[in-house]
Amino acid sequence: MELNVNGRSYTLDVPAEERLLWVLRDWLGLTGTKFGCGVGICGACTVHINGAAVRSCLMPLAAVAGAEIRTIEGLAERDGSGELTLHPVQQAFIDHQVPQCGWCMSGQIMQAVSFLERNPLPSEEETVRAMSGNYCRCGCYVRILQAVQQAAGRAGEEEAAI
Amino acid sequence: MNQERDADGLVEAQADSIEENSEEGGADGREPVPPRKRRWRLSRRGFLIGLGAAGAGLAVGAYFGRPVLHEVMAESFAEAEHAGSSFMQLPDDPPLWLEVLEDSRIRLSLTKAEMGQGVHTSIAQIAAEELGISWEDLVVVQADTSSRLVDSFGTGGSFSVASSFGPLRRAAAGMRNLLQREAAAILEQPENALLVEGRGFAVADDREKRADFHRLAAAITDWDLPDEEALQLKQADEYTVIGQSVGRIDIPDKVTGQAVYGYDMRVPNMLYGAVARPPTLEAKLLSASPGEAAKMEGIETFLIDVESGFAGVVANSRSAAWSAVKAMETEWDEGHLWQQEEIEALIEPAGEGGVTIQREGNAAGVLGKEAAISATYRSPFAVQASLEAPAALADVQEGQVTVWVSTQSHERAKGLIAEALGVDADTVQVVPTYLGGGFGGKLDTGVAIEAARLSKAARAPVHVGWDRSEAMLHGYLRPPTKSVLSGAVDESGRIIAMEHRQGSSDVAFSFMPDFMAFVMGADFGATIGARINYEVPNLTVTAWRKTLPVWTGWWRGLGLFANTFAVESFVDELAAEAGADPLQFRLDHLPDSPAGGRMRAVLEAAAELSGWGTAPRAGRARGVACFASNTVVAQVAEVSVDAATGEIKVHDVACAVDCGLVVNPEGAMAQIEGNVMWGVGSTLIEQAYVKDGRLELNNFESYPLLTMREAPDVRSVLVDTGIKTPYGMGEPPIGPVGAAIANAFNAATGRRIRTLPMTRTRVLEALAGGGS
Ligand code: FES
Ligand code: FES
C-alpha cells in the first residue's frame, strides 16, 4: 500500500481495514496526531486529506491510498537550511499561550488551518461553529477562539501584502 | 530532534523528545540528560549537594514534600557525614536539582511531569529568580526520560508550586551563594562587590573582571552552605522573573506535535496489549480462555490469571489487540446488579456515622424554634475524561523494569508495579511523560501494571493504551453528593443559624489505608467546600460518607464543585429570605478577619468586573458565588435562558482570584479559564449513573463534553492582598461556577434548580413550576 504523508511517500504492508490514525501513529511513528475517542466525536485525530480536515480514527487506510495526507508534523515549513517556520496558526497558538495539556491541540490546529484555507476572514460566529467539533478537556476555548481569529487576521494581512 | 526510523517504521530513541528546554535555551535548544549515577550528600544546612560525572561538578538539589521517614534518614546521613565519612548516597534522588553546564548556563532538572498546568515554567521562574540569572540562561529538562537511566528519581508527596516555593528558592540561592563565594576568592574581591552578569560573576565597578559559572563551579571545594538567614533570599519587591508572564516552555512542542505523552511512547520491537474488562461493577472473573482470539492474525501471547481477575492479550498492532480481547472467552460472576436509586440511598446525609466538621453555637436549637428554610442539592457521578486516555509502555527485563506512563504519581506506580511483578522496587524505573490531562484521574496506575504484566508475559516491550470506554468505565469517578441545608435569618436580615448535612463517598480515602480513614473521620477530599465561611453564630456542618460499589476518587477540585454549588446556592436562598442583594448579603456576613478581608476583596473585584449593580443586557441575568480556602475566588456568571428549548446559555463569567503570590500571571489566567469550562460543563452537561449493575457510560456520546459553542467568555482578575507565598490555582476556581450559574438562573427566571446537571429537561420542568 502506498501512502503519501507530508510530502513523503511510504510503502506499507498494513491490513487495508486499519484506520489511518493508527497507521500514522504506530506504523509511521507520527504520534503528533492523537487518539481521543476513536468514533469521530472529539476531533483529536484530525488530519488533512487533500486539504480537507478529516477524522483519521474513522478513515480506513484503503480509502486514502494515493491521497495527499498532511499531519501536524508537516504543517511547519522547513527551508533549505533546515530552519523551521511555523504556520501562522501554530504561531498564533503560541502567541496566545493556548495549549494546556496539549493533547487536543494537533486536532485543533489542523481543523483551524483547513477552515481558514476555505474561509480566510471568518466572523467570530463562523469560527465558533467551525471549531465546535473539537473537544478541549482542559478548557482552552477562550484562547483557541482568540488564536484562530488572530491567525485569520494574519493570513489576511499576508494576502493583502501580495 | 533526531528520530531514526527503522525498517518497521518504529522510531528509535524517541525519549529525547520528551525533554524540555527554556524557550530560548540556546541554539540547539536540546540538552540530552546523560545517564549517570550522581552521589548526593546532605550539607550541614540541609541542602543536597551532588557530584556528577557531567557538568562542572556542582549540583544543588532540593527536597520537599518528603515523607517524614525520608527526612529522618537524610538527617542520619548528615550525621554520618559529620562523623567523617565523605560522600554518602541518599536513599532517593531529589525531585529537582540545579547544575552548572560547561557553557555556564544552569540546568534545572525536574522529575515531575507537566499536565498542562504550567508547573515546569513556574518552577523554572522561581529558580531563575533566586539564581539571579536571566531567563535565557536557564535550561529546563524533564529528567529521567532517556531509556535505561540508572537513576531512579522522584519522591512522595505532592509537588506543586506552593510546596516547592521555599525549598527551591533556598536551593537556588544556596547555589548562587556558593558560586559567589568562589568568585570572591578567585577575583580577590569582597563578595558584596560582585554581581551576576550574564553567565558569571563580575566585579560591580570593573566589569572586565569576571569569572564564568563553569570555572567557579569547577573550582569549588568547600561545600558548606551558609545559614538560611545569610542566604538573603530576595524580597517580593525585588522580583524580576517571578510575577512575569513568561512563555510556557512546554508550548512550542505542543503546537508542532513533538511533545511525547504516555500514549505516544515507542521503542523498537514493541507490541500492543489489551485486557478484558468486567461487565458489571461487581463482576468476578470465573474463567477465561483465548477462544476465537487464538485464531486471529497478529497475536503474540495471552496472559490469563483467573485468581487476580486478569485476562489479557498481546498482539503486533493495537487494533489486533483490541479485536482479540473482545474475541476472548471470559465468564464472569456478575454480582449484585446495582441501580442508581440504591446508590443514592447510600449517600443519604442522615443516621449513624455523621462526622461534624464545623460547629458554632447551637444550630439545631435555633433552627428548631425559628422559621427556617431548608433545601436539598444533588450532584451526580462525573468522569475526569482526560482527552488522553490512560496509557503506559512497559519493558520488563530480567533485573530491570522500565515503565513510561502518563501519571500524576510515578512514585506510587513504582511500588505497585514492583508488587505486581514480584520484583524489588529498586529495579523498577517509572518514567513520567507529558500528561494529556490528569485532573486527578491519573493517580491511578492500573494501566502501568497491565503493561508491565503483559510485557513480562510477552518478553517484549508492551504498550497498553485504553480506549475511551475503558477510560470512562474503569477509572474512579467523582462521587455523587447530597447536601441538605437549613437556615434562618432574623428581621434585620442576619443569618442566625445554618446547618449543612453533606452525604458523599470516598475521595481521598480511596487511596489511604483504612486506619487513616478511621483516624481522620471525614474524608477531606469529599468535604472540601462544605464548610461555611460566613459569620453565622449558630452553625453545624456534618458529613456522612459511604463507600459505594462504584470506585470513586480524585477529580478536579475534589468535592469543591459540588459542595460550593450547594452552600452558595443556599446562601442566595437566604439572601432572598432577607430580601437582600446577594452580593451585599455576602459582604454583610463576612467575618472580621484577614480571611474575611480577602473574600471581600475578591467579591468586590468580581462585582466590578461584571458590572454588578448595572442592568445586564436584555434577557440576561447575573449570579454571584464565592469560595475560600488558602486561595479565595469569587465569580459572577451572566446567563440567559431559552424558555422554549430549556437551554441555559452562560455568556460570561467574571472571576476574581487571590491565590497569594502569582508566579506566572498568564498561566494563572489559563488555569482560571480551564476551571470555569469544567464548572460550566459540570453544571450543564456532565453526569454518569448506574443501571443494571454497570455505569451507563461508553464513549463521548454517553458523556459529552463542553464545546466551544457552549463555552462562555471568561474575564479574570488576580487580586493582590499582599500575600508573599503562592497558593494553588489549578482547582479552586472551579468551586463557585455551579452556584454562580444557578443563582443567575434564579435571577433570570425566579426558579431554582438544585440538582445537577441543569439539563434542558430540568430547566423546562423548573420553568413549568416543578421543583428539583
Ligand atoms: S479520535 Fe477521532 S474524533 Fe476522536
Ligand atoms: S489542551 Fe488539554 S485537551 Fe485541549
Can you put this structure into words, describing what you see?
- Chain A is of the alpha+beta class.
- Chain A has 5 helices and 7 strands.
- In chain A, a hairpin with a 5-residue loop joins strand 6 and strand 7 (84-85).
- Chain A starts with a strand and ends with a helix.
- In chain B, strands 12-13-10-20-17-18-19 form a 7-stranded mixed sheet, sandwiched between helices. A 6-stranded mixed sheet of chain B has the order 1-2-3-4-5-6. In chain B, strands 15-23-22-21-16 form a 5-stranded mixed sheet, with helices on both faces.
- Chain B has 19 helices and 29 strands.
- Chain B has 772 residues and is of the alpha+beta class.
- At the A-B interface, helix 1, helix 2, helix 3, helix 4 and helix 5 of A face helix 5 and helix 17 of B.
- Bound molecules: FE2/S2 (inorganic) cluster (FES) (2 copies).
- One FE2/S2 (inorganic) cluster (FES) sits between chains A (99-105, 136-138, 140) and B (116, 387, 437).
Structural topology:
The complex is a heterodimer of chains A (162) and B (772).
Chain A: E1 2-5, E2 8-11, H1 20-27, E3 46-49, E4 52-55, E5 68-70, E6 77-78, E7 84-85, H2 88-95, H3 105-118, H4 124-131, H5 141-161
Parallel strand pairs in A: 1-5
Antiparallel strand pairs in A: 1-2, 3-4, 3-5, 6-7
Chain B: E1 39-42, E2 48-51, E3 59-62, H1 68-82, E4 96-100, E5 106-110, H2 119-131, E6 138-142, H3 161-187, E7 194-197, E8 200-203, E9 206-212, H4 213-219, H5 251-255, E10 271-275, E11 284-289, E12 299-305, E13 310-315, H6 318-327, E14 329-333, H7 340-346, E15 355-360, H8 363-369, E16 373-379, E17 391-397, E18 400-405, H9 410-421, E19 428-432, H10 446-458, E20 462-465, H11 468-473, E21 481-489, E22 495-504, H12 514-520, H13 524-527, E23 538-545, H14 560-578, H15 582-588, H16 594-610, E24 620-628, E25 632-642, E26 647-658, H17 665-684, E27 690-691, E28 694-695, E29 713-718, H18 737-749, H19 760-767
Parallel strand pairs in B: 5-6, 10-20, 18-19, 22-23, 26-29
Antiparallel strand pairs in B: 1-2, 2-3, 3-4, 4-5, 7-8, 8-9, 10-13, 11-14, 12-13, 15-23, 16-21, 17-18, 17-20, 21-22, 24-25, 25-26, 27-28
Helix pairs in contact in B: 2-3, 3-4, 9-10, 14-18, 17-18
The complex binds FE2/S2 (inorganic) cluster (FES) (2 copies).
Residues 35-38, 40-45, 55, 57 of chain A line the site of one FE2/S2 (inorganic) cluster.
